[in-house]
Amino acid sequence: MLNLGVDLAIDLGTSRTRIFLQNKGIVVDEPSVITVDHEDNSIFAVGEEAYQMLGRTSDRFSVVYPLTGGVISDLGLVEAMITAFLRRVVSSKVSMPRAVACVPGEITDVEKRAVVNAISCAGIRKVCLMEEPVAAAIGAGLDISGPHGSFVVDMGGGTTDMAVVSLSGIAVSRSVKQAGNAMDEEIIKYVKRKYNMLIGKRTAEEAKINIGCVVKGMATGTHRIKGRNMITGMPMWVDLHSEEMVEPLKDIAEMVVRQIQDILEETPPELVGDIHDGGIVLTGGASQIVGMDTRIKVATDLRVIVAEDPRNCVIKGCGDSIKYIDKLKHPDGTLTPITDRF
Ligand SMILES: Nc1ncnc2c1ncn2[C@@H]1O[C@H](COP(=O)(O)OP(=O)(O)OP(=O)(O)O)[C@@H](O)[C@H]1O
Ligand SMILES: [Mg+2]
Questions:
Q1: What is the CATH number of the domain that holds 206?
Q2: At 258, which helix (H) or strand (E)?
Q3: Are 159 and 286 within one domain?
Q4: Which of 11, 65, 203, 311 best tests ligand 1's pocket when mutated (most atoms within 8 Å of CB)?
C-alpha cells in the first residue's frame, strides 16, 4: 500500500487506464471499462474483469467505455473507475496525494476540466495536466528539453496524436480520431461484407492484435474468429489471414500518413531539419500494427522508429514528470516539464 505523500501519474486512455506511483512504476494497467448493474445502478466490475464481460452480458448489466476519442463521455463512470483503481493501490487511510494526468493535445478547456474533476472526485488533492505527445516523447526516451525538434506519433485506441515537440512544448500538432478502435470497427465491417458474419468488438480487436497488417506481404499468419452467420443465424467460424487484413486497415493507416505529411509541411524549416536527422518515433498500442512504420517510412522518406514498450510511453513520461509537480504555478494548468529550466 501507498505511503503518505507519494505522488502519482494517470493516463486516462480511451482503451486503457494506467497509473504510475512515484518510486514504484506502473501499478495499474487495465482496460478503461466499467460494468454497471442496472438493478441498483451500482458498479459491478471495473477494468479487466469488466472487459471480459464485453458483449457477454444480460439486460441487467451494461459494459461501458466511459472515454471516447480520448475524452470523457461519462464523468460519473470515469470517477467511479478511477476510484476503484486507486483503491487497489492506495490505502484508504492515507490522505490522497497529488497527480499528473495527461490529456490529448487538442482538447477543449471544458474537456480538460472534466479530467481534473474526475480525478479530484476520486480523492486526489491536486491535479496537474500535461499534453500527451510531450509525455509520449519523454517516455520514448527523447530529450525534448532543448531547442531541437522531435516528431512523435502516438496511436492509441481512440486517437492518433501527432506532434513536433521542442523545448518541452508542442510546436505543431494534430489529433485525429482514427486509431485502434476505428481499426476494430473496420474489421467488423469487413467480416460482415466478406463472410456475412457478425463478430463482436473483442473478437475484432484480438484479430487485429494477432494478425493485423497494413502492408501486403509483410505478415503471414491466420487467426480463427467466431461469430454469427448473418444468413442462417447460426454460429460460424472463419480463419482470417493477415494478408486480407490490409484491406480493412489500409484507409486508417493512409489517413494517419496524410496527417503526418501535413504536419511536416506546416513545421518550421529548422525543426524539419531536426526531424530529418532524428526521424519519427511511434508510440501507443496501435503503433505496433505490422507495417505501420514501413508505410510512414515510404511516404515520408524519413527514419521511423517504434519506441521500446510503445504502449507505456505516455504513462512513463507522465510518471517521469511527477518530479516537476511542485514547480507548477497553476494547479490545473498545463505542466511543462522543462528539465533544469525552472
Ligand atoms: N500488438 C498490437 N498490435 C496492434 N494493435 C495493438 C496491439 N496492442 C494493442 N493494440 C491496440 O492499441 C490500442 C490501445 O493502445 P493504447 O493503450 O496506447 O491506447 P489508449 O492510451 O487507451 O488510447 P488513447 O490514447 O487513444 O486515449 C487498442 O486499440 C489495442 O487494440
Ligand atoms: Mg493513450
A1: 3.90.640.10
A2: helix 242-266
A3: yes
A4: 311
Question: What are the angstrom distances between the C-alpha of 47 and each of 28, 82, 119, 299?
Answer: 10, 10, 16, 38
User: What's the chain's average pLDDT?
Assistant: 91
CA distance 52 to 252: 27
Q: State whether 187 and 304 are in the same domain.
A: no
Tens of pLDDT, residue by residue over 137-159, are 999 999 998 899 999 999 999 99
What's 305's domain CATH number?
Answer: 3.30.420.40
121 and 23 in a common domain: yes
Q: For residue range 209-265, what is the model confidence (pLDDT) as tens digits?
A: 999 999 999 988 999 999 999 999 999 999 999 999 999 999 999 999 999 999 999
Closest CA to 1 of 87, 130, 121, 106: 87
Please name the residue whose Cα sits nearest to atom 20 of ligand 1: 13
Its domain, for residue 235, covers 180-248
Q: Judge contact between 156 and 285, C-beta under 8 A.
A: yes
Same-domain status, 25 and 165: no
Task: Give the closest ligand to the alpha carbon of residue 180.
Answer: 1
Same domain, residue pair 169 and 228 = no
CB of 293 sitting under 6 A from ligand 1 = no
Report the DSSP pairing between strands 169-176 and 160-166: antiparallel
Please name which of 291, 297, 308, 201 lies closest in space to residue 252, comparing C-alpha atoms.
291
Residue 2 is assigned to a structural domain of this protein: no
**What tens digit of pLDDT does each residue of 93-141 get?**
666 679 999 998 888 889 999 999 999 988 888 899 999 999 999 999 9
**Residue 1, domain member (yes or no):** no
pLDDT digits (tens, 9 = 90+) for 286-305: 999 999 999 999 999 999 99
- For residue 306, report the distance from its CA to the centre of ligand 1, in Å: 13
Residue 316 in contact with ligand 1 by CB distance below 6 A: no
Given ligand 1 and candidates 102, 209, 242, 293, which is best to mutate, with the most ligand atoms within 8 Å of its CB?
209
Of 223, 248, 273, the residue at which a domain comes to its end is: 248
